[in-house]
Amino acid sequence: MSVRELVVLGTASQVPTRHRNHNGYLLRWDGEGILFDPGEGTQRQMLRAGVAAHDLNRICVSHFHGDHSLGLAGVIQRINLDQVPHEITAHYPRSGKRFFDRLRYATAYRETVRLTEAPVDADGELARTPAYTLEARRLSHPVESYGYRLVEPDGRRMLPERLAAHGIKGPDVGRIQREGSLDGVPLEAVSEVRRGQRFAFVMDTRLCEGVHTLAEGCDMLVIESTFLDEDEGLAEEHGHLTAAQAARVARDAGVRHLVLTHFSQRYTEADEFERQARAAGFEGELTVAHDLLRVPVPKRH
User: Fold this and answer.
1) Exactly one of 37, 67, 219, 291 is catalytic; which is it?
2) Are strands 181-182 and 185-186 parallel, antiparallel or unpaired?
3) Which of 82, 204, 222, 234 could join 53 via S-S bond, C-beta 3.0 to 4.6 A?
4) Where are the beta strands (DSSP E) in 1-95?
5) Burial 241-266, CB ≥16 within 10 A → b, else e
6) In the predicted model, is pLDDT for residue 113 greater than 80?
7) Edge to edge, what strands does the sheet with 32-36 contain?
8) How far from the centroid of its chain's Cα atoms is residue 106's Cα?
9) For residue range 259-271, what is the model confidence (pLDDT) as tens digits?
10) Which of 189, 130, 182 is nearest to 158 (CA)?
């Protein structure tokens, strides 16, 4: 059975708190695992969440501030210690390669795993697999930062009433799916497009075109909401979003499930983030993330 879920490993911005670890997010997408922004302590949070190094196939770093990347050293060494049998690909802003290199080789260890670096230096497609296309878009932050978007290819949904009308049943249903037509009946006559699912990960940024492009039509949007409305000036100054700004992005983009995260340590009550997001007009599913939370990607329509 395929599993599509977000495993939240950490939700703090800048500094951890008693209840929030630095950032870390694992997206389980069928048989693959994509680790986003492993901040300090991610290796231990993986252990607590039941996430193994073998679960990882890609690592995506949005930018090289410490709360989004200091965990790389431990995660990479754990991947090698556990001798993960498959290749792992790392994406990160090319301008931060010197930081990636320092973290990758922060201490001595035995390399046993093929870790392929695929730096990001422009908007566009990063990887294409049968299960998804991975894209990146530039964000607006004091250092170069990218958001990531996963897009599943569109498929087709078979329509029982149309199949019956054409007398197609049993093994012939599989035949028409494989071959595209059967006895002069095209696949399009007995099916409809099933839109592929979309997931986006948007960390440290001001409002910009990249934020809206990444969020458009997403089934799940994981997005920073470092500040509340009363501190919008601080958000703009430091290159961040408020909960209300993130919610308006999700509302306008038609997002189905909004996950707010990356909270400033100045706030101790999570309820206000939800209240301000709702006040901004977002009416879909809403999660104010906390550490070790598991959030299923919404089922297809």
Assistant:
1) 67
2) antiparallel
3) 82
4) 4-10, 24-29, 32-36, 58-60, 88-91
5) bbbbbbbbbbbebebbbbbbbbbbee
6) yes
7) 115-117, 88-91, 58-60, 32-36, 24-29, 4-10, 294-296
8) 26
9) 999 999 999 888 9
10) 189
Question: For the chain, how many residues are written?
Answer: 301
Query: Which positions ≥6 away from 201 have C-beta within 8 Å?
Result: 25, 27, 36, 37, 60, 62, 147, 148, 149, 214, 222, 223
Cβ-based neighbour number of residue 189 at 10 Å: 16
What token pair was written down for 98? 């010197």
pLDDT in tens, 156-211: 889 899 999 999 999 989 999 998 998 898 899 888 889 999 999 999 999 999 99
Contact present, 225 and 235 (Cβ < 8 Å): no
DSSP 214-282: HHTT-SEEEEE--B-GGGHHHHHHHT--BHHHHHHHHHHHT-SEEEEE-B-TT---SHHHHHHHHHTT-
Residue 158 structure tokens: 């078979």
Q: CB within 8 A of 58, min separation 6: which ones?
A: 32, 33, 34, 35, 88, 89, 90, 91, 127, 134
Closest among 204, 222, 225, 232 to 277, alpha carbons compared:
225
Inter-residue contact 148 to 200 (CB < 8 Å): yes
**Nearest-angstrom CA–CA distance, 119 and 196:** 26
Instruction: Give me Rg for the CA atoms of the chain.
Output: 21
Do 195 and 219 contact (CB within 8 A), yes or no? no
Separation of alpha carbons 134 and 139, rounded Å: 16
State yes or no: is 67 an active-site residue: yes
**What CA–CA distance (Å, rounded) separates 221 from 36?**
13
Measured distance CA(55)–CA(51) in Å, rounded: 7
Q: What is the pLDDT of residues 231-261, one digit of tens each?
A: 999 999 999 999 999 999 999 999 999 999 9
